[in-house]
Design brief:
about 35% helix; globular; about 220 residues; 8 helices
Length: about 220
């Protein structure tokens, strides 16, 4: 199984964003998690296409764009055009989730769907064959620095059981409250892609990434 650390630039120092992305790349980080928030689906507003287009010019990382926006199908092609390699949309934000998934697939990038902590796995289980990744939010979407919600671990386990039972090639990503202890909890439950913001960016970025990646490797070796 492939394991990836997905640093969220929501917690980056935007005065040094390009420099920090270069540090991540030099440390072998392959995925960059980009949270787009519209102030409607979630209370916060973050950034949009101009920022993604700007950093795309200087980075070869995989741009994992997480749309926390209402009616995301309106913007799929725009985000692909500015550099997204995958687009994750919220099941709760779409009137026609199947159609939105189809639009992402037709745009030629990887497809992700995300669910809030209160949304049951059953709401999306019938769509797993059509996606590349499921993002289980382990905090309420919209704000950084929240604590991991323990009940979400069971959702990751349930999702992993379905994926294994149906022999699907679907990655499980978790986002929210990831730290030294919750990382292992999430990975043991079945998550293989870990989004982390303050855990990565607070303090010395280079040493943080080295330590986190080593810990992920140690855990993955125990699991495999």
């Amino acid at each position: 199984m492939e394991y990836q650390l997905c640093p969220s630039i929501l917690s980056a120092d935007f005065n040094r964003l390009g420099e920090q992305i270069q540090i991540l790349e030099k440390q072998g980080v392959k995925w960059l998690h980009i949270d787009v928030m519209d102030g409607d689906f979630v209370p916060s507003i973050s950034f949009g296409m101009p920022v993604i287009r700007s950093i795309r010019k200087e980075s070869k990382m995989f741009f994992d764009v997480h749309l926390m926006v209402s009616a995301p199908e309106r913007y799929i092609q725009d985000f692909v055009d500015c550099g997204a390699d995958s687009i994750t949309i919220h099941a709760e934000a779409c009137e026609d989730l199947e159609r939105a998934i189809e639009l992402i697939r037709d745009a030629g990038v990887k497809v992700g769907i995300s669910i809030k902590p209160a949304t049951p796995i059953n709401d999306i289980s019938h769509l797993l064959e059509d996606v590349d990744m499921v993002l289980v939010m382990t905090v309420q979407p919209g704000f950084g620095g929240q604590k991991y919600i323990p009940e979400c671990t069971e959702k990751v386990q349930e999702l992993k059981e379905i994926i294994d039972r149906e022999e699907l090639n679907v990655d499980i990503q978790v986002d929210g409250g990831i730290n030294d202890s919750t990382m292992e909890t999430a990975m043991r439950a079945g998550a293989n892609f870990l989004v982390a913001g303050s855990y990565v960016f607070n303090g010395d970025l280079e040493s943080n990434v080295q330590r986190i990646q080593q810990k992920m490797q140690d855990i993955s070796e125990k699991l495999n």
